[in-house]
Each structure stands twice: as structure tokens, then as C-alpha cells.
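Weekend entry, working from home. Most of the wet-lab plans are on hold until the incubator is repaired, so I used the time to fold the two sequences that have been sitting in the queue since the last round of cloning. Logging both here for the record. First:
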Amino acid sequence: MLDLKENFNSKKILIYGYGISGKACFHYLKKKNKVFIYDDNKKIISSVTKKKITKEKILKSKFDIIIISPGIDKKKCGLSKFIKKNDHKTVTELDIFYLNNLKNKKITITGTNGKSTTAKLIYEIIKKNNKDVRLGGNIGKPLLFEKNINKNTLFVIEASSYQIEYSKYFRSDIAAILNISPDHLERHQTFSKYINAKLKLIKNQNKNGLTFINKSNLKFLSNKKINSKIIKVKKFPQETNKIKNHYFKNLNNLNNLSFAISISKKLGLNKKKTEIAINSFKGLPYRQQIIYKRRNLQIINDSKSTSFSSTNQLLKSYKNIFWILGGLPKKGDHFSLEKKYFKNIKAYIYGKNKNFFQRNLTNKIPFKNFKDIRHALFGVLKDLKKEKDKNLNIVFSPCSASFDQFENFEKRGEFFNKMLKKTNFIKKAI
């Protein structure tokens, strides 16, 4: 590994992967170093006007530092052999940020589901308490774009398994593991390796660090050497009774809220200001987002859902659910909702991968198949009219990646909202 006192000055550096993380590293390092850019995506490289380098030149060159973007799979990328040979020189954006901001308090949130929501909520709570706080990592702008940092600046960081796995130096004062269920197995290969990637955030902490984890996830820490202090997060802290925000009425967001409250208390933040921040929190787009609630109808856009585990808690939170799902399934995913909830749900499967979802729902939940989201919505509308006297919930929670039809989950969520408006769905439903 590199010297921990690495100052990133006068170095020959290769940035591998020129997405938002790579661009932040280039912006941060270009003035004091000789920085080169490479990406397996030829379209990205062709758009770079300065400092790009060919694969042939990379293989003949020696670099002091190699910065690898989290989205690159070391085993399958175009420079896999080169990276393996020079792995001792590789670092990440998180490493650079950490080594240049050693004295700043860092609060890092990870987990399979709810990372962005929890990070954003904690950020809003700290901000309401009049602290200089920044939000970054896997949410918002990269940390290396932050300016005017002083010794009192706090950082709330969302970290993915990819970011944690590749980082060598990054250490967080406060770490939160929200939950762990099988995900990204196409990259991590096994659930065990995925768990270890997440837990690396905790294992890197020293004795002064704090780890927040709930009871159900403590099993993942058994037989692991942990130096930090473990703080068990209560499922429903007493403070949740004072929260009137409807956004926190489902079990997924209650879990996120429990972590935010526990961390806020440990930071010694003002209870009244914390309560105000929580009650005014609007959530993030397409993450269990209530987009319509009136009379006896509620519509939730949860396009961010990319696995069954991310949807389960949502399905437990309501009755009379019209569940729209479909897309590109994830490796190793399976439906594990308890039987007692089946009677509350009707499923509307869309897209080309219907066989996968059918296999998971057969003999559990009644379902119908549709060509696309639009047709699934009309299917819901048809059945909705038969049950107008009940409190009904339309839940768009795809349990799959969006790449079969959409660039990302945001585009998918945006499309769903547009379909509601374009077809006058709500007017027809009520």
C-alpha cells in the first residue's frame, strides 16, 4: 500500500473510470500532479479532450497512483491484468478525501436498502441544528468537489459496497449498517463476499469509532474482530411517537428513522430541532415516495427498488395493495415475504422477464402479466374500480434493475409519474 501520509503532490496518476467520481478526482488532483484518464467506454474517452491515454501506453507506463472508480469490476474490466499487478497502488476517491480531511468527523451510512434516505435525513437533522455539514459519497455531489472546509465541518457519507470494498484507507468516526440482504451478487459473486465488503466499513474503525447496527444484523458481526463501540439501534425508539410525518409510516422508513434518531442522540443534537427536521422531511424522489394521497387512494413510487428485499417492508406496511413490478432481475434474488401478508396483495407484472417474477409469486400472490408499465397501470385501473369502497394502495416497486428499458431508476420513476398524468389515471380511478 501507499504511505498513509501520501500528499498527492507531484505524482504520476492514472484515473481509471471517468464517471462522476473520476471527474471529481481529476478536478481535485490536476493542478499539482500529472494526471491521465482512461475508461473502457470508448464514447467517454472520445469526449475527453485533455489528458486521455490509450490502453497501449498504460501498459508501458509506470504510475505512482492508480485511482479506480467503484463501478469498475477489477476481474472483468479491460485493464484487469494491469490492475491486479498494480493493486498495491490503487486507491479510491474516498481514500483521497479521507487522507486530505483526517480531522473532520465523518458519519458513513451503508446497507442494502435505505442508504440515501437515511444519509439525507441525518444531513437535514444536523443542518437544522446549525452545523456546517456536507452530504456526499454515493449521494449528491462527490466529496472532492466540496470547498471551504474547516475543522468543524461534518460529513455525512453514503457508501456502497463497491466504494467500501476498493477503499484502503478510508475510516469513519461513525458507521451505520442499516441492513444486509443479498445484492450485487453479479459483482461480489457470493453473499458472504458481499457481507464482507459492507463490514469492511466497521473493521476499519479504531477504538474511538462508533458502530450503529440493529439486533437483526448483529449476527453478521460474530467471529469478526471489531475495535469500535457497538451501539444497538432500537426498532422503534420512543422519539418516533412524536413524529407526525406520514413518510415514516411504512416499516422501511421507520428503520431509517430509528438510525437517524440514534445517531442524532449520540451527537448530542437538540431534540426539538431534530423533531422539526424529521417532521418536515420530504424524502427523496422515487424512494417509497408518496406521490398521491387523497380520499381512499394512495400511490407510492418506489422505482429505486431493485430487489425483493427492498420491497418487502413496504408490502408489510399497507393493506389492499396493487403491486406493479418488473424489469431486469438481480442474480440470486428471491421472494421471501411472510405468508400472512399474501392476502393483502395483487401483483401486476410487466416486461420481458415475466417468467422470473411468475416463478417467485406462483401459489403465493395472484398476478397478471402486461407488456409494459403503461399497460400494467391500465390493468390496475380496471381492478381498482371493483374495490372503490376500500382504502387502496398502488405500489410501484419493481424489485429489479431498470436497464431493460430505462437508463436508471430515476428515468423509470419519472416515466411512471408521467404515465399517471398523461392517462389521467387518478381522475379515472376516483
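Second, folded right after the first finished:
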Amino acid sequence: MRHGTTTLFAALEVATGKVTDACYPKHRHQEFLRFLKKVAAAYSGADLHVVCDNCATHKHPQVKAWLARNPRVTLHFTPTSGSWLNMVEIFFGIITRQAIRRSTFRSVKDLVIAIGAFIDGWNERCQPFTWTKTAEELLPHCKPGKRTSFARH
């Protein structure tokens, strides 16, 4: 039985594997912008390169206006069917398999608590993902809609 949903926004620091996260009830530009501000505050003063998919939420005029006022934050968009290029997608697969799938949550609040606990534990022992294939090995497998992992943790 489903008791509701949450939207998990997550940013993966590729150098360390650390995840900055936030759960919101909806996935709109307002929530994405709130999350961007959280990530920017967590890494104040640093230039940030955020990899995103091509969701309209990420390209909303209010998001673009905020980015124009905050030039140290740059969004980079993966090509269609190229989500595997974004290493946070590997993390999403891990949290789905290890903390969410086949679990029962009595409420959205319980789900959010479980997500937070998993991410806290992850960040205590995090390490970067490592690409295990060369570009020459990857390119023949890059077919639209095919989800394959080419990194290990």
C-alpha cells in the first residue's frame, strides 16, 4: 500500500562521494531552486558545476534568473538517454536497492527518515565512484534508453 511519495533531490560530490540531499513533497522549479540554494550554501565560495537531466524544472525562468545572479553555479545537462553520465544516478540506484525497494513505510515522514538515515550513513563512509571503462569501451554500449553502470564504488 502506498502512503504518499517524496521527491529526493541529491547532489553528489564526485571527489569524495559525499551526498547533499533534500526531500520535498513535489518536484517543481520552486523545490529545485530551494535545493540549489542549499547546495550553494553548503559549498559557499566554491565554483559549482551541477549535472542535471533536461527536465523543464531545471530550465525554468526563475532558476535561470537565480543562476544569472549566482555565476559561480553552472548547470550542465546530460543528453537525452544519457542519465548514466551523471554519477548521482549511480547513488540513486544504490539507495533504491538498499533502503527503499521492498521496504514498507507507514508514512511519507517514515520514508524521509529512512532516506535521511541512509544518506547519513553513506556520508560517514563515502568514497568517490571510479570509472572502470575507457571511452573506447563505453561508446559501443551507448544506446538510447540503455541503462548500464560503468563505475564502481
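Plan for Monday: verify the second prediction. The chain has a mean pLDDT of 88.
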